Amino acid sequence: MNLKKSFTENNSIRLGLTAETWQEAVKLAVNPLIESGAVTETYYDNIIASTEEYGPYYILMPGMAMPHAQAGEGVNRDSFSLITLTKPVTFSDGKEVSVLLTLAATSAAIHTSVAIPQIIALFELDNSIERLVACQSPEEVLAMVEESKNSPYLEGLDLEG
Q1: Looking at the 3D structure of the chain, how many domains does it have?
Q2: How far apart are CA 105 and CA 76, in angstroms?
Q3: 92: closest CA among 56, 59, 54?
Q4: Is residue 63 in some structural domain?
Q5: How far apart are CA 78 and CA 46, in angstroms?
Q6: Quick check: helix, strand or coil at residue 89?
Q7: Which structural domain range is residue 109 located in?
Q8: 84 within 8 A of 135, measured Cβ to Cβ
Q9: For 1-19, what is each residue's pLDDT tens digit?
Q10: Helix, strand, or coil here: 27?
Q11: Residue 40: which CATH number?
Q12: Residue 111's pLDDT band (cuts 50, 70, 90)
């Protein structure tokens, strides 16, 4: 489960979108994966239901959310998508988010061992949120993913798969 490869294969980077609600933002974030066949509409429904039950547990840092639901259900293949919003949406806990990186994993093991370190590596880059929001093309996002490959979080991971 390689972040860069998934973004490319699923054509799943969308920049400068507009959403009025967090639900709409999550829909925009999941849509590229529905379009590519990586997930079904059920996966979006599961994220919304899970968020309504547990709150926005996937806001990982100020400005950034990683929408996801239980591994497997509604997921056809491991994948990622990333969207940026022109203005942040506010979640039920009052936190504002302008970058959403959707994670769809077929198993919990992939979710924790391979997916999370790559996401941490990307978002530990200096000014990552501002830089992602400023990106004008998917290529600029992919360049940031490439830049994050030197992170100590990725040592020993096989990211070719």
Answers
A1: 1
A2: 9
A3: 56
A4: yes
A5: 16
A6: strand
A7: 3-151
A8: yes
A9: 789 999 999 999 999 999 9
A10: helix
A11: 3.40.930.10
A12: low
